[in-house]
Amino acid sequence: MRIALFSTCIVDGMYPRVARATVEILERLGHEVVYPPGQTCCSQMHVNSGYFDDAYPVVKNHVESFEAWDWDVAVAPSGSCVASLGHQQPMIARHQGDEDLAVRAEQIAARTFELSQLLIDVLGITNAAEQLGSYFPEHVTYHSSCHGMRLLHLGSRQSDLVRTVEGIKYTEIEGLDQCCGFGGTFSFKNADVSGAMVEDKATNVEKTGASVCTGGDCSCLMNIGGALSRRGSSVKTVHFAEILASTKENPLKIDGNVELAFA
């Protein structure tokens, strides 16, 4: 397949190793990955703050950037951003009276998958060790992000893949379905509430005894990782794409800062 990578702005700007891990996984399976260069943001942060007029050109840019390339499906290492494509972009276009753009946005969204959706539902990957060669000998727990859970209905797809990685010891976190408190601009506008929520999440992460907390959204992992760092915890946060990309030959090494050996 020819797969278009929607890297998302936070991955592109702050966690490019997650995009590289996503590409590594898909190329390992024999697929061609292309990167529409005009892409920027999905408009989620604009919409969530009520700036619908400002969101419109962002939505238009996303649709036009992906329409300009030939691809079978698109993928993003973010449940939050994929949810925004289907849940928010058509709404914004219709709010501006642009029905044509709304339909085109829906068409792009229908072919765009979160990474675990693509791997399991489209590509039939159910065992990361056997089918991807994934290897990560660490004690891991998992945070389920809100948009992936509640809007995309990912269920246990991400953690199911993580559990099948060779060498992993997996312990489920208490309060798996509880928000980490990030919520984009929510963490700025409601800092005290957000801070209390992420402290609860960090406490539950530490209770598992895991050395690594993984998940499918870098924004949530950044928030949790920040809370863990502020309390002097040794637990690291790692996107599940990085774990799936890790192999015995090119392992993901965690020593202070997370670093991809193959990056």
Question: Brief description of this entry?
Answer:
This protein is an alpha/beta fold and 263 residues long.
How would you sum up this structure, described in words?
The protein has 2 domains: 1-120, Rossmann fold, CATH 3.40.50; 126-243, Rossmann fold. The protein contains 15 helices and 10 strands. It has helices at residues 9-14, 16-28, 44-48, 52-67, 79-87, 89-95, 99-110, 115-122, 128-132, 146-150, 157-163, 186-189, 191-207, 218-230, 240-245, and strands spanning 2-5, 32-34, 73-76, 112-114, 139-142, 169-170, 212-215, 236-239, 252-255, 257-260. Strands 2-1-3-4 form a 4-stranded parallel sheet, with helices on both faces. The chain has a 4-stranded parallel sheet with strand order 6-5-7-8, sandwiched between helices. Helix 4 packs across helix 7, helix 6 packs antiparallel against helix 7 and helix 13 (191-207) packs across helix 14 (218-230). The chain is globular and about 50 Å long.
